[in-house]
Amino acid sequence: MADKTITIEQIASPSRRPADQRATLVGLGLNKLRKQSTLKDTPEVRGMISKIPHLVRVVDAK
Questions:
Q1: Which CATH code fits 5-61?
Q2: pTM for the structure as a whole
């Protein structure tokens, strides 16, 4: 059985944001606008996304 994945895209700049939000972006593998990252769909990743919904969007969840 294949692991479920989720693709996220950075839609906003982390400038003028708290350091923990910047660190969350880096943890998700994002650092530039419009960059996309595909990760395993785990509760940890979902929690990181829910912490910064104003900076990222979910492109695809398989």
A1: 3.30.1390.20
A2: 0.89
